[in-house]
């Protein structure tokens, strides 16, 4: 297949396609973190969850030959790490930030240790959903080969939105996150609700890892996540704890990752370190703009980060 | 003694260590320690060294000890001490660039009888301990041959190079690749993308995708592990040449050839020298060891199914010239990609030329900038 050059359009297509390809792990992790934080707890360990998800998905896909079993395994592995975190933070006087950092190190350590034998083999990959059959331009066709986990993530974003807005359980999670004492008075079990939220959130994060190792870039290496799990936590603040906004923010972050390489591919090479750093600059910018010592953020769960 | 060992544990350790690494123990079996910065099966830099370790172990009198994923921190000093004290290593190969200063320099002073040989070439006589040496290969020779094959294979005339950082070793490979391709296809251009990191799989995949979208149909790279790039190229149905280790398995259709290290040969030479009682300090092992295709330090992967006979003939001809020692990659007249003259007509730079080890330019036909 000879691909004709399409010049500047390549940059546009590259960034849009990169938003979808690179944004999917951000999306799943940020939805998981959104659910977790809505219940009033923070899970910084999602970077570790992302890695263990990527590793288990790859390993199980390789062993069983089915990438779908791999995705399920990633979810389960994420849920297990989440359960440990949930148990830790339910204990009195345990700081969830500190526990999260411990889980981050524990999760990545486990993934590196157990993943050693899977660095070399090639595992079966998730099939792409091709939406570009109508186009005769190969770049467009390639850009529209989309990960099934992206559609899963988009569906999850809207479902989660509806869940928080109009279901009984969703209201319960919000109540627990906003005012645990009031929730308890209503007869809602705070520890149980938080446990469920953290475990489900981590399972989502694990599946984000499956996208990394089984779709894009599609390999298991120790550098596969390179901080994306942590960036997704910042992204939740950027999205004001709103699942659908998490979707837009993830696409923005995913697109930012593609800016540097796309520009260099058309010969614009000045400042590529700066372009490559754009996702991080975006994160920092978001943190600075949204930080204020005088008020809490709009949309922030009331009990977030408090010890209750 | 009890007082001493309690009060001065360091002195006690040093005393035992010197005993352990003494000649009595090294005489029966040569123990060689190999230290890698990443996993040893990454289809890349570390795998190439680990294959070298396995190669030297074929000698019955060599015992190789390996440790992978050792960070470039004081952790590597601990690893070196353990290999010397516990395994009785008499020669160490800490392979990562950042191990050298200060880690190797510090430990080497403490164990003057152990040979510390570093991959990369930073040794300076007089400044560094006498039991430290360095080795490296002219892999640009193999990259040049890969460039010839890629220049034949490309239909669009656009080649792509995904590189980590614009340092001399990397620039030299980019230039060799471009000159190789231009030697058979004068119109060929090489589009470069720098990812900024040695290992950044998401960015590498993104770079490969962007290049392919711009019409690049033959790709190569200089990053720690080419795995993601090889697989992305194969998925998009374009040609690719490998780097560090043989990646044919990852891209069975599109893999043309590749530039590989052949560390077995280098490690075997060192092991034999150590067995014969030679040492860096005494000057019987040279401090700087260099070699290319001719010396067997680097090799070219077997050709893939897509390589034509004409390409093979040109590649083999270049290889034969390297083997004969008559090949010059950087010869005048040579201009860089900003139009500045690098070499005038009639002036050549042989592989050993020091100018090549501080290269800061890209040859004409390469699209990219060394400035960041």
List the topology elements.
The complex is a heterodimer of chains A (308) and B (372).
Chain A: H1 8-38, H2 46-64, H3 67-90, H4 96-115, E1 129-130, H5 138-143, E2 145-146, H6 148-166, H7 168-178, H8 180-185, H9 190-214, H10 228-238, H11 243-265, H12 272-276, H13 278-290
Antiparallel strand pairs in A: 1-2
Helix pairs in contact in A: 1-6, 1-9, 1-10, 1-11, 2-3, 2-4, 2-9, 2-10, 3-4, 3-9, 6-7, 6-11, 7-9, 10-11, 10-13
Chain B: H1 2-7, H2 9-20, H3 23-28, E1 30-35, H4 45-56, E2 62-67, H5 74-85, E3 91-94, H6 100-110, E4 115-119, E5 132-137, H7 140-153, E6 158-163, H8 168-184, E7 189-194, H9 201-213, E8 218-222, H10 227-235, E9 239-244, E10 255-261, H11 263-275, E11 288-291, E12 298-300, H12 309-324, E13 330-331, E14 334-335, E15 341-343, E16 348-349, E17 366-367
Parallel strand pairs in B: 1-2, 1-3, 3-4, 4-5, 5-11, 6-7, 6-8, 7-17, 8-9, 9-10
Antiparallel strand pairs in B: 10-12, 13-16, 14-15
The secondary structure category of chain A is mainly alpha
Largest sheet of chain A: 2 strands, antiparallel
Beta strand % of chain B: 15-25%
Give the spatial strand order of the biggest sheet of chain B. 12-10-9-8-6-7-17
| Main sheet: strand order of chain A | 1-2
Rg on CA atoms of chain B, Å: 22 Å
Write down the overall mean pLDDT of chain A: 90
CATH fold-level name of chain A: ABC transporter involved in vitamin B12 uptake, BtuC
Count of structural domains of chain A: 1
Question: Main traits of this protein?
Answer:
heterodimer; A: 308 residues; mainly alpha; ABC transporter involved in vitamin B12 uptake, BtuC; two-stranded antiparallel sheet; 1% strand; B: 372 residues; alpha/beta; seven-stranded mixed beta sheet; six-stranded parallel beta sheet; 12 helices; 38% helix; disordered N terminus
């Amino acid at each position: 297949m000879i691909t004709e050059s399409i010049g500047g359009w390549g940059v546009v297509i590259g960034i849009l396609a990169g938003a979808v390809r690179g944004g999917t792990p951000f999306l799943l992790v940020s939805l998981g973190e959104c659910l977790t934080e809505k219940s009033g707890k923070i899970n910084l360990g999602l970077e570790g969850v992302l890695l263990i998800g990527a590793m288990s998905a790859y390993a199980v896909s390789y062993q069983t030959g089915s990438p779908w079993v791999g995705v399920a395994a990633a979810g389960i592995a994420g849920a297990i790490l989440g359960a440990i975190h949930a148990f830790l933070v339910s204990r009195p006087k345990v700081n969830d930030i500190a526990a999260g950092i411990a889980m981050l190190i524990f999760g990545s350590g486990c993934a590196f240790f157990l993943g050693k034998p899977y660095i070399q083999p090639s595992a079966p990959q998730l099939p792409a959903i091709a939406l570009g059959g109508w186009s005769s331009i190969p770049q467009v066709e390639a850009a529209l080969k989309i990960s099934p986990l992206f559609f899963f993530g988009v569906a999850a974003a809207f479902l989660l939105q509806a869940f928080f807005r109009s279901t009984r359980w969703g209201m319960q999670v919000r109540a627990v996150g906003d005012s645990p004492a009031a929730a308890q008075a209503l007869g809602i079990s705070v520890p149980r609700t938080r446990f469920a939220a953290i475990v489900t959130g981590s399972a989502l994060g694990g599946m984000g890892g499956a996208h990394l190792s089984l779709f894009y870039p599609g390999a298991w290496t120790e550098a596969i996540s390179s901080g994306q799990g942590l960036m997704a936590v910042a992204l939740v603040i950027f999205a004001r704890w709103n699942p659908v906004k998490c979707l837009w923010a993830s696409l923005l972050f995913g697109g930012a990752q593609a800016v540097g390489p796309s520009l260099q591919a058309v010969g614009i090479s000045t400042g590529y370190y700066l372009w490559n750093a754009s996702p991080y600059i975006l994160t920092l910018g978001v943190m600075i703009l949204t930080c204020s010592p005088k008020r809490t953020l709009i949309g922030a769960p009331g009990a977030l980060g408090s010890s209750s | 003694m009890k007082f001493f060992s309690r009060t001065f544990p360091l002195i006690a350790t040093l005393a035992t260590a010197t005993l352990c690494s003494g000649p009595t123990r090294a005489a029966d079996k040569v123990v060689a320690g190999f230290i890698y910065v990443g996993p040893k099966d990454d289809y890349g830099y570390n795998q190439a060294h680990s294959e070298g370790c396995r190669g030297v172990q074929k000698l019955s009198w060599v015992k190789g000890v390996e440790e992978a994923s050792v960070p470039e921190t004081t952790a590597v000093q601990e690893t070196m001490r353990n290999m010397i004290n516990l395994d009785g290593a008499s020669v160490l190969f800490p392979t990562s660039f950042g191990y050298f200063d200060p880690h190797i320099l510090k430990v080497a002073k403490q164990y003057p009888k152990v040979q510390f040989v570093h991959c990369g070439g930073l040794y300076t006589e007089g400044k560094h301990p006498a039991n430290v040496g360095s080795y490296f290969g002219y892999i640009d020779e193999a990259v040049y041959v890969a460039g010839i094959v890629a220049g034949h294979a490309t239909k669009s005339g656009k080649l792509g190079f995904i590189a980590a950082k614009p340092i001399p070793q990397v620039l030299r490979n980019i230039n060799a690749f471009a000159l190789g391709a231009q030697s058979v296809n004068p119109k060929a251009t090489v589009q470069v993308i720098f990812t900024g990191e040695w290992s950044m799989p998401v960015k590498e995949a993104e770079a490969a995708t962007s290049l392919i979208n711009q019409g690049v149909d033959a790709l190569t790279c200089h990053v720690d592990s080419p795995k993601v790039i090889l697989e992305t190229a194969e998925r998009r149905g374009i040609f690719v040449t490998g780097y560090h280790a043989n990646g044919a398995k990852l891209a069975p259709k599109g893999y043309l050839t590749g530039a590989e290290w052949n560390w077995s040969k280098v490690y075997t030479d060192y092991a034999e020298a150590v067995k014969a009682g030679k040492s860096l300090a005494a000057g019987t092992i040279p401090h700087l060891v260099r070699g290319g295709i001719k010396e067997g330090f680097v090799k070219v992967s077997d050709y893939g199914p897509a390589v034509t006979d004409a390409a093979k003939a040109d590649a083999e001809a270049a290889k034969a010239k390297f083997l004969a020692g008559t090949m010059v990659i950087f010869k005048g007249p040579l201009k860089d990609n900003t139009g500045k003259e690098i070499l005038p007509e009639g002036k050549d730079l042989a592989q050993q030329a020091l100018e090549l080890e501080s290269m800061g330019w890209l040859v004409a036909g390469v699209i990219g900038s060394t400035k960041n």
